Amino acid sequence: VSNNPKASKPISVARSAFFECNSSPKIPFFIIWWMTLFLVLPFGVRRDSDIEEGNDPGAPAMSRMWGKVAINTGVALVVWAIVYAIIEFDLITLGDFGITR
After folding, report:
1. What's CA 19's distance to the chain center, in Å?
2. N or C: which end of the chain has fewer CB within 10 A?
């Protein structure tokens, strides 16, 4: 048993890494936004039935990028809120994996 008050405290490396300075919550959101974009891009893709010479046969007929950007932002907000809650409220810590200082 240690008298050190920090010894029994769970390790919260993520909090210090992601959310300490003012602009830090934006950084994980930006990373999550780009990662979820690659999940959202294939939604609703339909091939063009009239393939003109010089066009790629796999190109979509209508890309609907602004709709996908809007959907992606909503998905990224939900994922970011979950990550933020896990980090801010220490729902999962390194101590849960047996890692101690």
Report:
1. 15
2. N
Query: d(Cα 20, Cα 23) in Å, to the nearest integer?
Result: 9
Fill in the amino acid letter for 42: P
Tell me: the pLDDT tens digits for 16-45?
A: 555 555 557 788 899 999 999 999 999 888
- The tokens describing 55, both together, are 């066009």
User: Nearest-CA neighbor of 95 among 22, 14, 29, 36?
Assistant: 14
- Alpha-carbon distance 56 to 36, whole Å? 25
Distance between CA atoms of 34 and 64, rounded to whole angstroms? Answer: 17
**Average pLDDT of adjacent 10-residue blocks, the chain of 101 residues:** 52 55 76 95 86 83 91 96 87 84 71
Give 93's DSSP letter: -
Structure tokens given for 8: 């029994």
**Chain mean pLDDT for the chain:** 80
